[in-house]
Amino acid sequence: MSASIIAAAQTKPVNPFGLVYQNALTKNVSGEVNIHPVTYKLNGIDISANVYTPAHYDPAKHYAAVVVAHPNGGVKEQVAGLYAQRLAELGYIAIAADASYQGASGGLPRNVDKPAFRIEDIRGMADFITQYAGVDVNHIGLLGICGGGGYSLKAAQTDKRFKAVATLSMFNSGVVRRNGFMNSGLATIQQRLQQATEARALEATKGEILYAADTEITDEMANQMPYDLYREGHYYYNRTHAHPNSTFRYTLSSLLDLMEFDAASNMDLINQPLLMIAGSKADTYYMTDYAFNLATGTKEKELFLIPGATHIQTYYVPEFVALAINKLNTFFNKNLHDSNQSK
C-alpha cells in the first residue's frame, strides 16, 4: 500500500457517533441528512444500528430504503456507514447494523462468525427498517460489502422483500475459510476442521473459547503479506479507519459452519435485479466473477468494475467511492423508484 494512499486516508476523527470515515456526520442538522442510532431485538439479541434519513426527511412521505451489510471484521461506523450516508444523501433511507455477536450488538461469546447468523442479521435489518416511518415496504434494496456482500447474496436468494441487490467487493467467506485465499489453504483443510472440532468440544465441556485470527499484526508484518486484500486491510482496519469494536478475530468453532458455506451456491434463486461492483485491480475479483456467472435466474444483472481500484480502496478512496455510489444510485433509482415515492 503506497504512502500516498495511506496519507490520503481519513485518520481517526473525534466523532460523537463513533464514525471513522471521511466527511462523516458530527451532528444532526434540520433539513440535512441525519443519523439515528437505534437498537432492536433479533432472536433475543440486542442489535445496534444506525439509520440514515435524507435531507428534509418527512415521515409522512414514502422513501425507498437500502439495507447495508458490513464486511467481515467491520462495524457500522466504517465503510458500511459511509455508503449508508452517501445513499441517504441521494434520498434513500439507509440502515447499517453491527452483526449479532459483533461490534456494539449483543450476543455471547463475542465474535461468533456463523453464516446463518450473518444472513439472519440482514433479514433483521429488513424487519426493522420496513417498520420505520416513511419507508415504502415495497421498495427495499440491499447492499452488501465484502463478506456482507456474500451474505447479502444468500439473503436475497430467499427473502424477496429485497427488490434489488447489490454487492461491493464481494468476499465469499466460507470458500476462503475452507480453501484459503486463492486456494492457498487446500492442504490444511482437514487439519483446520479438526482444530475447529476440538474448539467446539472445549466450549461444550469447559466453557473455554478459542479464537482464530487473534494475532496483533504490525506494519512490518503487513508489508510482507502477499495479497493486497490483507496488506491494505491491515492499514484500513488497524490504522486509518480503526474502530475499537472492529476486530478480525472470530471463534475457532465458527469454522465448523464457515467451512461448509458457499455464498455462490443457489445463485439461480436470485430473480431480483443484481449489480455486482468490484475494483479492476482487486485480488478478490475472482469471487465476484464466479458468483455473477452463476446468477442465471435474474433477467437483469450487471457487473461493474471500478478502474484502478483494489478491494480495500473501494471502501474509502473518494474517487472510487464516488464511482460506486453513482452506479448504485442509477441501479437503485431504476429498481426502487416509482411515481408514488418522494424521490
Give the tags:
35% helix; globular; alpha/beta; Rossmann fold
Task: Describe the protein in words.
By secondary structure, the protein is an alpha/beta fold. It has one domain: Rossmann fold. 35% of the residues lie in helices and 19% in strands. It has helices at residues 3-8, 79-89, 115-129, 147-158, 173-179, 189-206, 219-223, 228-240, 255-258, 285-294, 318-335, and strands at 34-42, 45-53, 63-69, 93-97, 135-145, 162-168, 211-212, 250-251, 274-279, 301-306. Helix 10 links the parallel strand 9 (274-279) and strand 10 (301-306). The longest helix has 18 residues, at 189-206. It starts with a helix and ends in an 8-residue tail after the last helix. Mean pLDDT is 95; it is low at 1-11 and 339-343.
Which secondary structure elements does this structure contain, and how are they paired or packed?
Layout: H1 3-8, E1 34-42, E2 45-53, E3 63-69, H2 79-89, E4 93-97, H3 115-129, E5 135-145, H4 147-158, E6 162-168, H5 173-179, H6 189-206, E7 211-212, H7 219-223, H8 228-240, E8 250-251, H9 255-258, E9 274-279, H10 285-294, E10 301-306, H11 318-335
Parallel strand pairs: 3-4, 3-5, 5-6, 6-9, 9-10
Antiparallel strand pairs: 1-2, 2-4, 7-8
Helix pairs in contact: 3-4
